[in-house]
Amino acid sequence: MDKHYQNRPFTVDTPAQRVVFGDGALARVGDELDALGLHRVLVLCTPPQRTLAQAVADALGARSAGVHDGAVMHVPVETARAGHARALATGADGLVAVGGGSTVGLAKAIALDSGLPIIAIPTTYAGSEMTPIWGLTEGGIKRTGRDVRVLPRSVIYDPVLTRELPLAMAMASGLNAIAHAAEALYAGDANPMTDWMATEGLASIGSALPALRRAPHDAEARRQALYGAWLCGRVLGSVEMGLHHKLCHTLGGSFDLPHAEVHAVVLPHALAYNAAAAPRAMARIATALRGVPADDAPQAVYQLARDAGVPASLASLGLPEAALDTACMQALQRRYPNPRPLEAEPLRALLQAAWAGDAPGA
């Protein structure tokens, strides 16, 4: 046993969920409907994913209740209500979410009210498909919560589907996955299993992103990235997240910033904020991201992001500098688990550095 846990009690909660992984796994979607006893499912997607979602619906034939392409970032309540109404109108007894975090988020919002079971078919590395975490945005405020009803009952990971993922989105989505694992390593309710999943996920994503940067169509790198995303998503749903995720929910929901890119920008700065309070986690992050030319975890993640070519600053994502005070105030309003206490002045400095694109701790 890891010495860290020898005298420390822990709890491991493993809710029921089925995972199907492998090239061509999409062909097994009908089998997953059979396993769940579903007869008529509504296929969800964003508008750009309509072609793939329609192909899934066509493959299901009479078992498809149609395609609803209304998913958007941060799940506005109006979008959730429209999706729920469509599910009711079509008589769907289940949902198939084809896409990334926006589509899975919409499925979760519908399930939260209806109880409809979800089959998720991820096409990015967001990880939402592995968690019981839901989010809804209303009036510029994003609310999140946990409810086992929204956890997808079945997840089909087909690396072939990620070959169409644009390189820029693959890089940002991969950094999003890294954020899940990094924060899990200093979570107060971590356990040996979550530590292993986080470390393995970090190592997988950390090696896959540079390989994809060199060769975007590298099939093995795509498999490795999706494998890492699965583990990072699983650990996200297993422990309480801290400062980083709170900031990203605040920035994304209040200012309509792109989800994955915000994670990529903020993560090095959030790690720097927590570094002194979580040295064990920082050492494991830096070790897992082997091959990155940096000695400490915040700098390792920052360098990986720079090498991946993702946006470097909140300013480049369209956030006005005048919004930083509001973002800081919102982040301080509700307390949540974090290794270092939240203090207004250091938190405001963190946001300023992320806005400007400075190196962490500079």
Q: Any idea of the CATH topology of the largest domain?
A: Dehydroquinate synthase-like, alpha domain
User: β content, as a range?
Assistant: 5-15%
* Percent helix range: 40-55%
Q: Describe the global form.
A: globular
- Radius of gyration from the CA trace? 19 Å
- CATH level-two architecture of the largest domain: Up-down Bundle
Number of strands: 8
| Main sheet makeup | 6 strands, parallel
Structure class: alpha/beta
State the fourth-level CATH superfamily of the largest domain. Dehydroquinate synthase-like - alpha domain
Q: What's the rounded overall pLDDT mean?
A: 93
- The number of distinct structural domains comes to 2
Total helix count?
13
Low-confidence stretches: none
Strand order of the largest sheet: 1-8-5-4-2-3
User: How far apart are the termini?
Assistant: 37 Å
Q: What is the helix/strand order?
A: EHEHEHEHEEEEHHHHHHHHH
Descriptive overview:
It is a single chain. This protein is an alpha/beta fold. The protein has 2 domains: 146 residues, Rossmann fold; 190 residues, Dehydroquinate synthase-like, alpha domain (Up-down Bundle). It is 50% helix and 11% strand. It has 13 helices and 8 strands. Strands 1-8-5-4-2-3 form a 6-stranded parallel beta sheet, with helices on both faces. It has a two-stranded antiparallel ribbon with strand order 6-7. Strand 4, helix 4 and strand 5 form a beta-alpha-beta unit. Helix 5 runs parallel beside helix 7. The longest helix is centred in the middle third of the chain and has 23 residues. The chain is globular and about 55 Å long. The two termini are 37 Å apart. The mean pLDDT is 93.
